[in-house]
Amino acid sequence: MIYDVSAKRGEGINQWQALLHDVDNTTLSPKRRGRLLEELMINFFNRVEGFTCVKNIRTRTEELDIEIINNSDMFNREGKIILCECKNWNRPLKRAELNIFIEKMKNRRCRCTLGFLVAWNGVTKDLENELLRFSQRPELVVILEKDGIINALDTNSVREYLDNIVINAITM
What we know:
The chain has 172 residues and is an alpha/beta fold. The protein has helices spanning 5-9, 13-23, 30-45, 95-106, 125-133, 146-154, 158-171; strands at residues 51-58, 63-70, 81-87, 114-119, 140-145. It has a five-stranded mixed beta sheet with strand order 1-2-3-4-5, with helices on both faces. Helix 4 (95-106) links the parallel strand 3 and strand 4. Helix 2 (13-23) packs antiparallel against helix 3 and helix 4 runs parallel beside helix 5 (125-133).
């Protein structure tokens, strides 16, 4: 389902603050919190001109949380498809999740060179080290964490945040 960009791009702080509250609400089921994080990230990415979000895609072999159709001037070097995987776990993400995500990117017929892995509660050191090992591959995985996402939304600087974090991921 393509998410209605026109209705969401201009909406104010209240929508993402309500989502943020629910994403962190530990009384909700993990599945519900995961879906809410996906909604928050759609709200986040819809703030970038040229991004169109498609959520919850099921292929015959895998599920994709968010697929971003890339028509952005900012990311014109990247492939037409950008993937986003959202993990709202109570613990940091381990390396295995990175490997699974990279396989999803590779399965896009070389049309996906950039992916955002949302690790709401951070990543382990072994995942960080694995990112370094992948530095010569065409796929670039950028880790987005809670504090950076919230700050970008608070300051209405999502585009600038993404630009900076992608450059940092390239030069790490």
